[in-house]
Amino acid sequence: MASKILLAAAAVLVIAAGGVATLAVKPPDLLRLGASYGAKIVCSNVFIAGRDGQAVLADDVQAPGHPLLKYLKVAVDQQRKTVRAQFLGFVGDGMAVYRPGTGCAVAPDGDVALASQYQFNPIRIWSPSPNVPWPTGSQAEANPAVQALLDQDALAGPGMRGMAVIYRGRLIAQRYGTGFSAASPLLGWSMTKTVNAALVGMQIADGKLSLQQSGFWPAGDGRAQITLAQLMSMSSGLRWNEGYGEVSDATRMLYLEPDMAAFSAAQPLEQAAGGKWNYSSGTAVQLSRIWQRAAAGGDAKAATSADVLSLPHNRLFAPLGMNSAVIEADARGNLVGSSYMYATTQDWARFGQFLLQDGIWQGKRILPEGFVGGMQQAAPASGGQYGQGQVWRWGPSGDTPEGQNPDTRFQLPADTYWMEGHDGQSIAIVPSQQLVVVRLGLTPHRLLYQPQALLAAVVKAVQQ
């Protein structure tokens, strides 16, 4: 009997050892994804935002994420500017690397050297003076009534990290979460899509793109009929799964594919372009690919050159004084226009004000006349919830039933439109009130926070 027990125990150990070896050599995609996600978030927050890596792991990755993430460990190499993340110290092997100008990239194929090539030396954008009123400087012209609203925790919402209210072109209130300040770059997630749309607009202004243009796939491919306008409206007809808590098209693209543009470009047509609205980060990355190639004169190789990668910094962020803003590139030089822009709260507000001013800054037109107005118009297939230029016409849904406008019960001005991002990022733009309200944080959707209540209160306050 004893010998049988020993044999059984030995068999279990052998099987367990084999399982561990298999995990180490060929981990499931879910674990690879989790490790890459952890490495990427820590990398960006350490090397762009200047935060402590272990605090980022605990607060930004593990606390709000999948239960498996509590077993994730990270190692930050300050000299090489890399972050390695592994489950239990040996499974998953996520790797991310920081590059000047283009931030952090996941290297799911392990080729850190290739990922590191896609960078540029940013020209200096002067820091805004604390003694000069916003937007030229960073000084607020406080409105006590509006500031009192931001100071209410219920309106600010759980996990708030940065808030700002711009009224008639002036910063009238701001608030920051514990451990964060006006100098803290914060991730906008899908608010990046709207900035990416503006970069498309700049290529239209340069005469290198048009909204009715097609031919972004090879001739004879059914996808070649998809127009730029349909991509901007999230109505391309391409198959895409935008789920976040699993291995989906969106998460695979962001964390398991070194070339995000190639992955998203390979998606097949699900139905005729223009017939169905489907929110897609893959579509946004295709827009990055399109405008980068247009800026390079159609040369696919030059599209990832330093000259093109620096275009957002030189031609958009510098004129607006957005000295903190960084759009990160993937491991093959595609700017991740779907998800990865970091900027301070005040710099996000500068971009919102830029849209409010119809794409004009300090008297200079940067976006084509009428372009911002077109962005706000309803995408025909979206049921009214989404615009034709990567903006939302409805605010965050909270617990509102699908298909119903969540803004209705807040009685917001009819011309309100939104930039929105994962985990509670939002910028509300209200042209009729000359109002921009920025709210950033780490607020998972399950908490059902809606910034509409804050916006409604601010609108009422500035009208008095």
Automatic annotation (TrEMBL):
> Has UniProt tagged this entry with the keyword Hydrolase?
yes
SUPFAM superfamilies the record matches: beta-lactamase/transpeptidase-like (SSF56601)
Record keywords, A-Z: Hydrolase
Per the UniProt record, the source organism is Duganella alba
The record's InterPro entries line, in alphabetical order, gives: Beta-lactam-related, Beta-lactam/transpept-like, Diverse_Enzym_Activities
Upper classification of the source organism reads: Bacteria, Pseudomonadati, Pseudomonadota, Betaproteobacteria, Burkholderiales
Q: Which Gene3D superfamilies match?
A: DD-peptidase/beta-lactamase superfamily (3.40.710.10)
UniProt xrefs under Pfam families = Beta-lactamase
Any one GO MF term held by the record is:
hydrolase activity
Tell me what this protein is called: Serine hydrolase
